[in-house]
């Protein structure tokens, strides 16, 4: 079936067509899909990034958010980035259970995305997936990443807002700050607030970030309304300057991915190690326009 047909079907609500298109977007046929989609439609689609340490309650929070957005009549897509990562070991089954309320809802699409494919990873696949979801009529995308590496930074480049989920516990706030997690936070949620120490963690966090902080017990549905209010408020206050900053981060991330994929990188590294080039010259060479066969597909 050709891509234009799939797009039509997906627009008309076909899950199977949407799934096929998302697979194509992760494959080397991504550009074909993007071309068929045409220019980005004017759409108020929201992309909410949910990130945080393993087990912080990201999926539980997403399940609660899905309910809220469904009550508003939104079509919702959940992208779980790299759920097979060693950090969330086997969480996919658990996520199924947390998402049971939504599994038979034809307006909720749940999809996992591998962050380290051969085609430039998350930085390239997720914006394309988002473009696709926007064109086929989704109103909200909730994207889950484990906040332990590059992926949450890449998500933050496209998400508005990025919610960082932490838990009560001594040192959590400081650790999150150290790990650079708070830098990507537009909203911070202290989940598992039914446990001791939530107030203290909120106080510690206030010293580390200007982002709004909400207390959450996602598993009990407590604080979810406050979280949604913070997400809504952030979206309204989103400025051109912030959008420019996000676009810059996204461009840099994509450019970085392209540079890493250059086949001459290894050759340049050898010439530096062998003393034929210095790293500055090698960097210049890496940035120089390459011939087509220097690039990966
Ligand atoms: N006490 C308490 N436990 C919670 C709360 N929210 C989630 N949990 C539990 O925390 C565990 C992890 O929840 P998940 O939602 O899978 O966390 P996650 O951040 O998506 O985990 P990974 O994807 O594996 O990184 C589960 O056992 C949840 O039941 C909460 O508000 N209070
Ligand atoms: Mg999860």
From TrEMBL:
<dbReference type="InterPro" id="IPR003593">
    <property type="entry name" value="AAA+_ATPase"/>
</dbReference>
<comment type="similarity">
    <text>Belongs to the SIMIBI class G3E GTPase family. ArgK/MeaB subfamily.</text>
</comment>
<protein>
    <submittedName>
        <fullName>GTPase ArgK</fullName>
        <ecNumber>3.6.5.-</ecNumber>
    </submittedName>
</protein>
<keyword id="KW-0547">Nucleotide-binding</keyword>
<feature type="domain" description="AAA+ ATPase">
    <location>
        <begin position="44"/>
        <end position="256"/>
    </location>
</feature>
<keyword id="KW-0143">Chaperone</keyword>
<dbReference type="Pfam" id="PF03308">
    <property type="entry name" value="MeaB"/>
</dbReference>
<dbReference type="InterPro" id="IPR052040">
    <property type="entry name" value="GTPase/Isobutyryl-CoA_mutase"/>
</dbReference>
<keyword id="KW-0378">Hydrolase</keyword>
<keyword id="KW-0342">GTP-binding</keyword>
<dbReference type="InterPro" id="IPR005129">
    <property type="entry name" value="GTPase_ArgK"/>
</dbReference>
<dbReference type="GO" id="GO:0003924">
    <property type="term" value="F:GTPase activity"/>
</dbReference>
<dbReference type="InterPro" id="IPR027417">
    <property type="entry name" value="P-loop_NTPase"/>
</dbReference>
<dbReference type="GO" id="GO:0005525">
    <property type="term" value="F:GTP binding"/>
</dbReference>
């Amino acid at each position: 079936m050709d891509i234009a047909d799939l797009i039509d079907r997906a627009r008309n609500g076909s899950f199977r067509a949407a799934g096929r298109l998302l697979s194509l977007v992760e494959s080397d046929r991504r550009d074909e899909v993007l071309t068929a989609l045409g220019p980005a439609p004017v759409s108020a689609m929201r992309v909410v990034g949910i990130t945080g340490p393993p087990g912080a309650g990201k999926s539980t929070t997403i399940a609660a958010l899905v309910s809220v957005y469904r009550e508003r009549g939104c079509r919702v897509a959940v992208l779980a980035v790299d759920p097979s990562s060693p950090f969330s070991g086997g969480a996919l089954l658990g996520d199924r259970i947390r998402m049971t309320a939504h599994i038979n809802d034809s307006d909720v699409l749940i999809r996992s995305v591998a962050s380290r494919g051969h085609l430039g990873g998350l930085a390239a696949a997720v914006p394309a997936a988002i473009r696709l979801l926007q064109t086929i009529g989704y109103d909200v995308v909730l994207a889950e990443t484990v906040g332990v590496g590059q992926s949450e930074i890449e998500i933050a480049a496209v998400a508005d807002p990025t919610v960082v989920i932490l838990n009560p516990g001594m040192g959590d706030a400081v650790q999150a700050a150290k790990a650079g997690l708070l830098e990507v936070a537009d909203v911070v949620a202290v989940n598992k607030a039914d446990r001791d120490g939530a107030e203290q963690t909120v106080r510690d966090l206030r010293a580390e970030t200007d982002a709004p902080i909400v207390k959450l017990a996602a598993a009990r549905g407590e604080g979810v309304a406050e979280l949604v209010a913070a997400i809504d408020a952030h979206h309204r206050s989103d400025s051109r300057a912030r959008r420019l900053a996000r676009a810059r981060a996204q461009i840099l991330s994509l450019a970085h991915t392209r540079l890493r994929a250059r086949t001459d990188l290894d050759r340049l590294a050898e010439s530096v190690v062998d003393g034929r080039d210095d790293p500055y010259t090698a960097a210049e060479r890496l940035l120089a326009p390459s011939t087509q066969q220097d690039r990966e597909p």
